[in-house]
Amino acid sequence: MRPYLGLLRMSTRRILTYRLNSLILWIGGATFLAGSLAVWHALLSQGAIGGYDWDQMKAYLLVGWATASIGSAYGDWWMASRIFDGHVATDLTKPLDYQWARFSEHMGGLATEFIAIAIAATAIVTFTGGLVVPGPGQALLFAVSFLLVAPLKFTIAYITTMACFWTQNFMGVSWAKDAVVTLFSGALIPLALLPAWLAGPAAVLPFASITATPAALYLGQATGWEALRLLAVQAAWVLVLWWGARLIWRRALRALTVHGG
Amino acid sequence: MSLVEARGLTKIFRRPEKDPGLRGSLKHLVQRRFKDFRAVDGIDLSIEAGESVAYVGPNGAGKSTTIKLLTGILVPTAGTVRVAGAEPHTDRMVNARNIGVLFGQRTQLWWDLPVRESLALLRDMYDLSPAFYKQRLERLDEVLGLADLLPVVARKLSLGQRMRADLAAALLHQPKIVYLDEPTIGLDISVKDRVRQFLRELRQDGTTLMLTTHDLGDIEDVCERIVIIDEGRKIFDGPLAQMKDRFARVRRMHLQLAEPTPVEKLAERLPDVEVIAGDSPTEVTVTFDRFTHTAGQIIAGVLDVVEVGELHLDEPAIEDVVRKVYAGELLR
Amino acid sequence: MRRTLRIYRRSLGAHLRAVLEYEADFWVLIVAGLLFQVLNLIFLSAVFAHVPALNGWSYPEAVLLAGTYGFVNGLGPLFFEGTWRLAGKINHGELDYPLTRPAPVLVQVVSGGIGLHGVGDLIGGGAMIGWGLAHSDIDWSPARIGGGLLLLASSATILLSLIVVGNAASFWVGGNHPVFAMTLIRTGDMAKYPLSIYGVAVRATFTVLVPYAFISFFPASWLLGKESAWIGLLTPLVALYCVYLARLVFRLGLRRYDSAGH
Residue B64 above 50 pLDDT? Predict the structure, then answer.
């Protein structure tokens, strides 16, 4: 356990070392949020769309942005670059489980991401006049679901980086992943507003657990048994992807040609 | 006028002075404090066409900075530079056609391109005619063995291959003067020899060379003139032989004695010199200052005690001199 | 100038050949670029399924606007991708060699790479422009066509110049990644929607301070004959100003370059 905590601390410190970089990335993220807010403000000025009024949409966008921020400080790029520059060989000689080690580093970024999310929430409350807040029960459900987003996003990023064993260029893969996740998680637009041919796949893919589930719990759209069912689905995806990643990793090791070596 | 003329060349880097931590960074934003660092401090240097100059000094002495000032990469804080009549940092493009540069630690090849593409790009930048380019490639292939490297992507080259390709890149346009910053760093012996052989041939072709190195073999093999700098200042500039005369005072004589002799007995007869026993009882090494003793005096002294079978004298090694400079012993 | 262009073309060509070596990457990148444009389209179509107009912009008009922004954004990776490596080059002292070569440093930097995802943006953005134009009510004339092309070229020039300005900021900001440039360019993403949905502060900033609005909003407004359409005709002037600014900032930055310290 101790070496993993060490990795976690190291990655927090690394992000803090590059705090100027982090700061500017947050500002970039904030302008994206500001853009979405402006579009929806204009759209909702004539009334609710698909059951979302302005107050709910504000909360939805904040949750969407927050879940998108999770895991962004310690991104898949770091993992990918270690595979490309051949560092993965060094990582493999260490007496650590590779997947747990990367997961620890991923979690190391959370502290700074939470700060960014808190700042964004404060800004929304200040500049747009208030924010819908869930009752204590829903808040608890939301908190659990929000915490599950971290390992879920990790497994997706981790599986994506393994494409590096087969392709020379991670950029395209990473973007394709980002596009798919953005669409099917609900970060682009609430899934209920998607046309049927997209809403169908979104319902069965794991990505809805990233944004749509926490948002539904926050806004109180899912309560009681339905809320628990969503949490169970989320947890199940974490487990399935975690073990799926192990399977792929085993195959990747067989394909391992350390790049540039 | 010399090919390279530098007068009072000075480069001062300004480094921000920050307190540690986030508070320090924020404080620095409000109240900016800087510390000056003199990397090169009033250097005068003239290099004639056809000379080959070794530019030597410990890490951080200002070697690379000087090269960067002479090549136009950095703008001097004070002083003047002329290279073949042009001022490098203002007439950058003119100067660029006259010079070839190699930084041993870094490659100028495009990382994701095959060597052939990198060389072709340089051909376009230097406006080389197809005939000239072909002839240069053939010549460089002869001495550097380029042919098998051409189709390889730069990032897949080994260090030795990379250095060969980089030398070709630096010399493709047949520059008048070539600056080499640690051209043999990290290379194994056989590649090193090949590079040195190549540099010797380059010198014979009449190319002016200036090289910085930590490898003293490079200097003895390639250069006839040596410039030593430390803390940004020149502390010696002259022929290699003269430097040995001036700084290499210590010589070593190895003797094969006719019969085993205790070193104490020899030491008694030879005061002020160091006598050390060799591998066998009949071998000794005598270390002496050649300004206080001659080799003849040493031999005479030993012959007083015992017959000598064979002897040989180590030439003064510049290695010893430079090591002393590095250790700070030779500074005024 | 012709010589500079030739060097630029050859350098870009060499990098193009290099990336084409990896066929799988080629397709992945193009699909990735295309996906982002598809995403924009899905967003707009989902929204316009519920509302008839966004601040006076109809569905085809909004698609035209977003398509223009996407199309122009595809030119960056295709023609100026090397610029994004400037921060790393400054940080590692890798401008040393370019400074010793007889070619403009900016050209060497800008042409030092190619991003094929730009092709996806061009295809996706281009298709959206085409569809948007076909379904919008435009009073076509030779002047309108010529003007439209001129404005498109100008808006591309503005974006490419902004890429240079943002990345040249690395001469001052430091660090290994072009975070400032990323922020600058990603903020521009807000310009894929009609400018009128934003508050007055954003509108002023995007018009005067950083002219994102001239990348898509004002040119499209001119083409569609929206209110204050005439501002769109200023786009070429703004483009010239941006080119001047980019060259100035890069030159000033290069003077600060200290080759990683020693």
Answer: yes
Considering only CB atoms, which chain B residues are within 8 Å of C15? 110, 112-113
Q: How far apart are CA B223 and CA B220, in angstroms?
A: 6
Query: Would the CB atoms of A39 and C173 count as touching at under 8 Å?
Result: no
Is C49 close to A193, i.e. CB distance below 8 A?
yes
Residue where one domain finishes, among candidates B245, B278, B301: B245
Q: Domain limits at B118? A: 4-245
Q: Which residue of C has its CA nearest to A33?
A: C190
Q: Is B323 among the domain residues? A: no
Residues B31 and B116 in one domain: yes
Q: What is the ipTM of this complex?
A: 0.86
Give the whole-angstrom CA distance, residue B167 versus residue B230: 28
Q: Is A49 an 8 Å CB contact of chain C?
A: yes
Read off the pLDDT of residues B301-329 as tens digits, 9 standing for 90 and up: 888 888 888 888 876 666 677 777 667 66
* Distance (Å) from the alpha carbon of B183 to chain A's nearest alpha carbon: 23
How many angstroms separate the Cα of A92 from the Cα of each of A51, A160, A170, B161, C98?
Answer: 51, 19, 21, 29, 38
Number of structural domains (chain B) is 2
* CA-based nearest residue to A36, from A73, A72, A65, A56: A65
CA dist B208 and B49 (Å) reads 6
Please tell me whether residues B79 and B181 are part of one structural domain: yes
The minimum CA-CA distance between A260 and chain B, rounded to whole Å, is: 6
Distance CA A74, CA A171 (A): 16
| Per-residue exposure over C213-240, b if at least 16 CB sit within 10 Å of its own CB, e if not | bbbbbbbbbbbbebeeeebbebbbebbe
What residues in C contact B73, CB-CB < 8 Å? 95-96, 99-100, 257, 259
pLDDT of residue A261: 36
Does the residue B324 lie in any domain?
no
Note whether C40 and A39 are within 8 A (CB). Answer: no
What is the number of residues in chain A? 261
Do strands B34-47 and B52-56 pair parallel, antiparallel, or not at all (unpaired)? Answer: unpaired
Q: How many domains does chain C have?
A: 1
Q: Which residues of C touch A180 (CB under 8 A)?
A: 35
Within a domain: B330: no
Q: Which of B245, B272, B301 is the last residue of a domain?
A: B245
- At B180 the three-state DSSP class reads strand
Residues B23 and B90 in one domain: yes
| pLDDT < 50 regions, chain C | 262
Q: Are C224 and C140 in contact (CB under 8 A)?
A: no
